[in-house]
Amino acid sequence: LRLWLWLWLCGCCGTARGLRIHEYLYFQVLSPGDIRYIFTATPAKDFGGVFNTRYDQIHLVPADPPEACGELNNGVFIQDQIALVERGGCSFLSKTRVIQEHGGRAVIIADNAYDNDSFYIEMVQDSSRRTADIPALFLLGRDGYMIRRSLEQHGLPWAVISIPVNVTSIPTYEMMQPPWTFW
Question: Signal peptide span per the entry (predicted)?
């Protein structure tokens, strides 16, 4: 039973880190096809909402400007979609609030260290006492970079994703994970 519990904690739902369990949320890029992988993200620690709905096909729209610390040039495309934002320039909570104010359903904040393919940052609330209602997720820098690069190469304004994805229902041999990331 202990071995099963350890495998369950480390394999499908998170990594045991001391006394705290690090949770993961998964999403799959459906289009463009060259990045049709299942990506791993971590939810914000103490702000933001949770996914109460599964979106089978929703747009993942890169914010313009990428750091989303103020007014967006493409805010109209964020409405009812999920925004891909880059870390830096302002707090995680500020970015989440900007996306929420533009009608976004969630925000995925990619690390601005493009070579980061293994270290998850714990997103915490800033000292402003503000709140946000939409889910906020942290994405590894390499994953965010590869998604943005693919969109630029194809001249696309957004990716189509499914979120969240239950990876426990996918056989291991069918799970398409990014080749640059070690799970």
Answer: 1-18
Task: Decide if 2 is inside a domain.
Answer: no
The reply to whether 12 falls in a domain is: no
121-169 pLDDT, tens digit each: 889 888 888 889 999 999 999 999 999 999 999 999 999 999 999 988 8
* CATH code, 124: 3.50.30.30
H/E element, 161: strand 159-163
Radius of gyration for the alpha carbons in the chain, expressed in angstroms and rounded: 16
Residue 174 located in a structural domain: no
Q: Is 51 among the domain residues?
A: yes
Which residues fall within 8 angstroms of residue 79, CB to CB, at 6 or more apart? 102, 103, 104
Q: Model pTM?
A: 0.84
Q: Are 162 and 54 in contact (CB under 8 A)?
A: yes
